[in-house]
Write a structure and sequence with these properties.
Elements lengths: L2 E3 L6 E3 L11 H5 L4 H15 L5 E5 L2 E5 L3 E7 L4 E7 L8 E6 L5 E7 L9 H16 L30
Antiparallel strand pairs: 1-2, 3-4, 4-5, 5-6, 6-8, 7-8
Length: about 170
């Protein structure tokens, strides 16, 4: 039967056959890690799961940790674990390599981990803070807290647009 090549994963698939190359698991993403990185990943996962109820799932090349919204994610790579977490403030400490604005309320921070011993304070404190504030940062204001809708009352309604005819 005829095949086509998936532009996402590069696999040859029979035309008309079901194919889902986006479905992955945290285990599949961490399968090829070195022993040091696997130990660091396990310690990071155990630390995060100790915070409380949450959902851990894989999305493309990242492992997401979320309550109602994602508060941090990990990208397992061959040389390190890239950890990105979201806070309501900016941090300028050495473990944080980069940071930037994710929205009006959120600031993302990126740290790289290469060994189990790096999964300790202050990183664990920042992850705990991200877990605690994730619901407040991801929440939209209540309808009564938003600006009230302006009624289209008398004098507010727009006048119909009148087209002028061209002169001949």
């Amino acid at each position: 039967m005829a095949t086509k090549r998936c532009h996402h994963c590069g696999e040859n698939i029979e035309i008309g056959a079901a194919h889902d190359c986006w479905t992955t698991t945290p285990e599949a993403l961490t399968r090829g890690l070195s022993e040091d990185l696997r130990d660091a990943w396990e310690r990071l996962r155990e630390t995060a799961l100790a915070f409380g109820e949450q959902r851990v799932y894989a999305s493309h090349k990242s492992i997401m940790f979320s309550r109602r919204v994602c508060y941090f994610f990990v990208r397992p790579r061959t040389k390190d674990l890239e950890v990105v977490f979201f806070l309501g403030r900016e941090i300028a400490d050495p473990p944080v390599r980069k940071s930037g604005r994710a929205s009006r309320a959120k600031v993302w921070h990126m740290a790289r981990i290469v060994h189990r011993d790096q999964v300790e304070a202050p990183l664990t404190h920042w992850l705990r803070e991200a877990y605690d504030v994730s619901d407040q940062l991801g929440r939209r204001p209540a309808p009564e807290a938003r600006a009230p809708d302006v009624p289209m009352g008398r004098g507010v309604r727009k006048k119909p647009r009148v087209r002028r005819q061209k002169k001949r």
